[in-house]
């Protein structure tokens, strides 16, 4: 089976059979989109909530707002239909402890909120998530059935 690695601030798409995987999701969010009718899977590893807050924003895959749009475009090219897409998200951890009042440092939480907001605007339903906490995750999205394997250190392995 073909396995494609998705790096940080990167995204990719695969048709079944195959797996998309991304390592080391800390405060970053892994956004897994899936069209079960056409068996097209897409995975984005976003680092920041919004491209509008950053000057240097050519890399669309780095941000929740532009990364999700780009991922959908690439999935449609592979044969997915936007109306069939469902989402699963993982990551968004608070990897370091900061003063609780400083929301600018709560990047994981902000990434999750921005991801949910964008998917909601696009009418893409999040059917499961594994977000928050203070630990990293590695995820694998299977294009055959849309299952998302979440591996953590100290928190086991689960399929969402």
TrEMBL record:
Keyword hit for Cell inner membrane: no
Pfam families attached to this UniProt entry: CheD
Keyword Ubl conjugation: no
Keywords: Chemotaxis, Hydrolase
Biological processes, Gene Ontology terms: chemotaxis
Enzyme class: hydrolase
InterPro entries xrefs: CheD-like_sf (IPR038592), Chemorcpt_Glu_NH3ase_CheD (IPR005659), Cytotoxic_necrot_fac-like_cat (IPR011324)
Molecular functions per Gene Ontology: protein-glutamine glutaminase activity
Reactions it catalyzes: L-glutaminyl-[protein] + H2O = L-glutamyl-[protein] + NH4(+)
EC number: 3.5.1.44
Role: Probably deamidates glutamine residues to glutamate on methyl-accepting chemotaxis receptors (MCPs), playing an important role in chemotaxis.
Family as reported in the entry's similarity comment: Belongs to the CheD family.
Name of this chain's protein: Probable chemoreceptor glutamine deamidase CheD
Organism: Keratinibaculum paraultunense
Lineage: Bacteria, Bacillati, Bacillota, Tissierellia, Tissierellales
């Amino acid at each position: 089976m073909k396995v494609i690695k998705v790096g940080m601030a990167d995204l990719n798409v695969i048709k079944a059979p195959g797996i998309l995987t991304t390592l080391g999701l800390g405060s970053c969010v892994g956004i897994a989109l899936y069209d079960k009718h056409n068996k097209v899977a897409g995975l984005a590893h976003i680092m920041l909530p919004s491209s509008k807050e950053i000057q240097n924003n050519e890399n669309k895959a780095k941000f929740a707002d532009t990364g999700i749009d780009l991922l959908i475009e690439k999935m449609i090219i592979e044969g997915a239909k936007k109306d069939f897409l469902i989402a699963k998200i993982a990551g968004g951890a608070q990897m370091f402890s900061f003063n609780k009042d400083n929301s600018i440092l709560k990047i994981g939480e902000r990434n999750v909120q921005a991801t949910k907001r964008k998917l909601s605007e696009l009418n893409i339903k999040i059917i499961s998530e594994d977000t928050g906490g203070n630990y990293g995750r590695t995820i694998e999205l299977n294009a055959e059935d849309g299952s998302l394997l979440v591996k953590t250190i100290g928190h086991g392995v689960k399929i969402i």
